[in-house]
Design a protein that fits this description.
single chain, YaeB-like fold, five-stranded mixed β-sheet, 5 strands, about 40% helix
């Protein structure tokens, strides 16, 4: 199993890391990136772990330490990360990403 990031999901991750770097410093920014990688590795081992989410075929996995969810789909042997969505801001802004 492997994964890919939607280009806008990559931008979501970059924006979140920059926010934490600017507001709290580089250590928290690096912690977010490490938590993202841990979440990805968990999903690669257990792709069905996330719950079904809104649109058919979309799943959501809640990150443990940060208020973000990974919105993803599973297709064959690939997990496609559509968004790194903040759990309390702009719900559903990522709809339309494939």
């Amino acid at each position: 199993m492997n994964y890919s990031l939607h280009p806008e999901a990559e931008a979501d991750l970059r924006d979140a890391a920059e926010f934490y770097r600017d507001s709290a410093g580089p250590i928290l920014s690096q912690s977010l990136l490490a938590e993202f990688e841990r979440s990805i590795n968990t999903l690669l081992q257990h792709p069905g772990l996330g719950s079904s989410w809104r649109q058919r075929g979309h799943r959501r996995y809640l990150m443990k330490r940060f208020p973000y969810s990974l919105i993803y789909t599973i297709s064959g042997e690939e997990i496609r990360i559509l968004a790194l969505a903040h759990q309390n801001r702009r719900p559903g802004y990522w709809r339309g990403r494939e």
